[in-house]
Write a structure and sequence with these properties.
With 324 residues, the protein is of the alpha/beta class. It has helices at 19-23, 50-60, 66-69, 75-80, 114-125, 145-158, 175-184, 201-204, 210-223, 241-253, 280-293, 310-313, and strands at 64-65, 85-88, 92-93, 103-104, 129-134, 163-167, 189-191, 229-235, 258-263, 297-300. 45% of the residues are buried.
Length: 324
């Protein structure tokens, strides 16, 4: 049995902690054998040279994708179609979320060339729709909001017709400053994931606060009523159906327009365990409720992720049905 009070050590700048070394301070109950994946959990692996092409392009421009860093199961499908969700501000996060495979540590300084490199890559890939996300950067005074602005500006200067969706951190401690900056230079879609139900935040998302994430979404929408807001939730972490339904109601009450619902998959044996695999019929039920609540776009299915086929989500298509 692991030590319930693991010792801490100072992490060097640029050092990446993953797996057990990342989540060792989070109390997780993970002693049972992992659940066997059901038949509806499957990953498409297309035969395409685009996967290596996209990876090579990202390496050449010193860019990161959340697809790779978070070990997304949809990477083969998305990369094969020449799409990626770009992750800015480095590949080291200042949070230790128990569900996420992105490395934890003390991040390197921001790369001032990243906005220009990102804009060039978007143009070279011929993208019409781009999703930009980031690690949490609690070390930055504005949480990295200005860097988002710089990336949006660079892309619009180079490819003005591209639709830009940003998937942001929670900007704890700097919400007003961040929203002000992202209102002055706004994306086309503002996304911030609620991730899970409030009852599981302490064990799954210990560095965040449920109410704060809701406030961020509502504040941005109030200041930008013409722009769509979006959020996502994972299921299968131990939440109840009622808790998921309540979270959907909370999101809608905080003016969120679009929602994604997907199955949590454990990135490694050291992360939060999968409590259950949610049946596709239950995802359909969540989708029906979300539409009844007034969400303008709903994507609900086992393999759905926040940015999975985001261009189709933007058209109101439930990409959860693509995998059926």
């Amino acid at each position: 049995m692991s030590n319930p009070h693991p010792s801490r050590r100072k992490v060097a700048v640029g050092e990446k902690l993953r797996g057990e070394s990342k989540v060792r301070t989070i109390p997780l109950v993970n002693e049972d054998a992992p659940l066997r994946k059901p038949k509806w959990i499957r990953v498409r692996v297309p035969s395409s040279g685009n996967i290596q092409k996209v990876k090579s392009m990202l390496r050449q421009q010193k860019l990161h994708s959340v697809c790779e860093e978070a070990a997304c199961p949809n990477l083969p499908e998305c990369f094969s179609h020449g799409t990626a969700t770009f992750m800015i501000m480095g590949d080291i996060c200042t949070r230790r979320c128990a569900f996420c495979d992105v490395a934890f540590g003390r991040p390197n300084p921001l790369d001032p060339d990243e906005p220009a490199n990102l804009a060039e890559t978007v143009e070279n890939m011929g993208l019409n729709y781009v999703v930009i996300t980031s690690v949490d950067r609690d070390d930055l005074k504005d949480g990295g909001a200005q860097h988002f602005v710089d990336c949006i500006t660079a892309i619009r200067q180079r490819t003005p017709k591209v639709t830009i969706e940003i998937l942001t951190p929670d900007f704890r401690g700097c919400l007003d400053d961040a929203v002000n900056k992202l209102t002055d230079t706004a994306p086309d879609v503002f996304n911030h994931n609620i991730e899970t139900v409030p009852e599981l935040y302490k064990s799954v998302r210990p560095g965040a606060r449920y109410e704060h994430s809701l406030l961020l979404l509502k504040t941005f929408k109030e200041r930008n009523p013409h722009l769509p807001t979006k959020s996502g939730i994972m299921v299968g972490l131990g939440e109840t159906k009622e808790q998921v339904e309540n979270t959907l109601r909370d999101l809608r009450a905080h003016l969120v327009d679009r929602v994604t619902i997907g199955q949590y998959l454990q990135p490694s044996p050291h992360h939060a365990p999968v409590a259950r695999y949610v049946h596709p019929d239950e995802f359909d039920a969540y989708a029906s409720l979300a539409r009844e609540l007034g969400f303008s776009s709903v994507a609900s299915g086992p393999m759905v992720r926040s940015s999975y086929h985001a261009d189709l989500q933007n058209q109101g298509i439930n990409v959860g049905t693509i995998e059926k």
